Amino acid sequence: MSVFWIKTFQLILCFALLIILHEGGHFFFSKLFGVRVEKFFMFFDYKFHLFSTKDKWFTRLFPKMKDNETEYGIGWIPLGGYVKIAGMIDESLDTEQMRQPVQPDEFRAKPVWQRFLIMVGGVLVNFLLALFIYAMILFAWGSDTLPMRNIHDGFAYNEMAEALGFCDGDIPVQIDGEDIEGWDGSVYRAISEAKTVTVLREGREIRITMPEEGVNLLEMIEQDPRFLSVRVPSRVDSVMPDSPAALVGMRSGARILAVEDQDVAWWGDFEQVMGRKADILATGCSHADSLRLRALPVVFINEGSATADTAVITLTEDYLLGITKLSYGQYYHTAFVHRDYGFWESIPAGIAYGWETLKGYVSDLKYIFTKKGAKSVGSFGTIGNLFPAAWNWEAFWNITAFISIILAVMNILPIPGLDGGHIFFLLVEAVTRRPPSDKFMERAQYVGMAILFTIMALALFNDAVKFLF
Predict the structure, then answer these.
(1) Residues 168-181: what's their mean pLDDT?
(2) What CA–CA distance (Å, rounded) separates 166 from 208?
(3) What percentage of the chain reaches a pLDDT higher than 70?
(4) The dihedral formed by the CA atoms of 395, 398, 399 and 403, expressed in degrees to the nearest 10
């Protein structure tokens, strides 16, 4: 099965699970308080649907479903899902119902606190689901931590980091006096917000004072090479058959010693050379220059060989050698510290991890409102690429839990049309003792949907740019 379909199936399974459970939160509280739910749909069913329990063929097979007050189905627009709750203005924009006399089983007939719980139900389920998944991941697989002091070869830093005082080989061990537990993506965020970073340099602890305004996190992770990365020897993990590297005799386990007359000890050194090529290409160059840049002089030595080989490798049109690099996980596989969790131990640990993930994501939201942040907004392509190319249940559940947190945060934003918009207006009603008019809610719903469609259009555009260019 191709990588595309493996990622697609994981994306569909993740979205189906999260949409059904999110809408199930609204459904649960609606039923708990005796509110009629007319529809429960995964995906939107504008004009038509793919499946419904009100379809004639289905009611012939299951005649009892014909009298069920709730219609269950699958729409054709994969932008989420919804429950149509009687007596409220939502995605269905059913304003005709709102002109009828209030019925006791309608949303608008219930007290504010019940309506609040109905609207917050989806977000609550998303958040609790993420905590549960994180807990069960720890219970099933435990945790693997790479302590910073175990990274004996240190980190490679780019020019931005070096300008702040970091040096290749430095190992960050403390942020503002607090020990860094282990290496993961959160270290970037911690450094970006730090006042001081303590590094281990040639056995001595050196304190680096960071700028008062902090460091832009997006720039740290988007630069090539990145702000910091674990130094890994320039050893080849595998070579693709018939690739440019294979054609000159490079084999798995080979060590790249030099590229374009520049000594290479770490993969970071190699990436600097390739980065310079990318910079030249980005400025625009002739076809002849492009062909010249594809010719890469390389000195390498195969594993078990006594002598090095020198060759000019003709890179692919994408400027690739056709190799996979030794990863830091492979290089430091014996340096990881594994911990198993019992069932009851995993629950508080999962809650703590989920809470830290939530805080980190909320902290990063400020970057969405920047030019770089807007360009990073993605839709299905971006989300789908989060999943691994080979099916891995631990990775799948980790990503699903993270996306569940994203959905919880995005839905709680006070934007009309989202749960957060409804919750905001309910809070206003609770304070003023006066509900907004139906006309106001109708217009707010239109505004909210326009905002959401604009964001979705931006996300689809960004994905298209990434795919095409």
Answers:
(1) 94
(2) 8
(3) 87
(4) 170
Question: For residue 11, what is the enclosing H or E element?
Answer: helix 3-32
Q: What are residue 156's DSSP bridge partners?
A: 229
Q: Which residues pair with 256 in a beta bridge?
A: 300
Query: Is the bond leading into 225 cis (omega within 30 degrees of zero)?
Result: yes
The rounded mean pLDDT for the chain is 85
Q: Name every residue whose Cβ is closer than 8 Å to that of residue 340 and which is 6 or more positions away in sequence.
A: 142
Contact by Cβ (8 Å): 172, 198: yes
**pLDDT tens for each residue of 254-292:** 999 999 888 999 998 888 888 777 777 666 667 676 777
The pair of three-digit structure tokens given for residue 367, joined into one six-digit string: 């970057």
Q: Report the predicted TM-score, pTM, of the whole model to 2 decimal places.
A: 0.83
Q: Report H helices in 229-342.
A: 244-247, 267-282, 287-293, 328-331
Residue 55 vs residues 38, 277, 288: alpha-carbon distances, Å: 15, 59, 62
What is 81-149 written as a DSSP string?
A: EEEEETTS--TT--HHHHTSPPPTTSGGGS-HHHHHHHHHHHHHHHHHHHHHHHHHHHHHH-EEE--GG
| 43: nearest Cα among 69, 10, 75 | 75
Tens of pLDDT, residue by residue over 120-173, are: 999 999 999 999 999 999 999 999 999 999 999 999 998 899 999 999 999 999
CB atoms within 10 A of CB 297: 13
Q: What's the CA gap between 233 and 301, in Å, rounded?
A: 13
pLDDT at position 105 over 80: yes
Encoded tokens for 135: 């807990």
The partner residues of 72 in beta bridges, in order of sequence, read: 40
- Give the separation between CA 24 and CA 324, rounded to whole angstroms: 43
Say how far apart CA 343 and CA 337 lie, in whole Å. Answer: 20
Question: CA 202, 216, 464: angle at the middle one, nearest 5?
Answer: 120
CA separation for the pair 156, 168 (Å, rounded): 5
What is the secondary structure of 210-222 as a DSSP string? PPTT---HHHHHH
Q: How far apart are CA 194 and CA 282, in angstroms?
A: 33
